[in-house]
Amino acid sequence: MIFTTLEDAGKFYRNYAKVAGFSTRVRSTNRKENEIKNQLVTCSREGKWKSKISPTEKTNPTAGLNCPARIYIHTLKDVGAWIISKVLLDHSHPFYPSKAEMLKQHRELSISIRRTIENNEEAGL
């Protein structure tokens, strides 16, 4: 797929992730002369972390599950467009599309709640 901007390509994958029931994160961005050349976007459960807390004392499970799902986005220099060049869609964990709105990346405040917060800030509350 070809996109006019890097943001459009990232937004496309984030929207897909929301429908499927997972979240994403930018793992790396390569630059040349201060211009972005390519970007790696992975599932937020990519990688594995060592915890300093013993598993018996933990209240939340570890997020990292070595999920291999990712996309590579790079620029087509001569055209000035962005293309998703490689896609790995296999995940190492289950999806929960019905709970996608609860994932941090997909949470949004409604307009009425946002206005209430702004009004409270203006009033100094």
From TrEMBL:
Species per Swiss-Prot/TrEMBL record: Arachis hypogaea (Peanut)
Protein name: FAR1 domain-containing protein
Domain FAR1, chain residue ranges per copy: 11-96
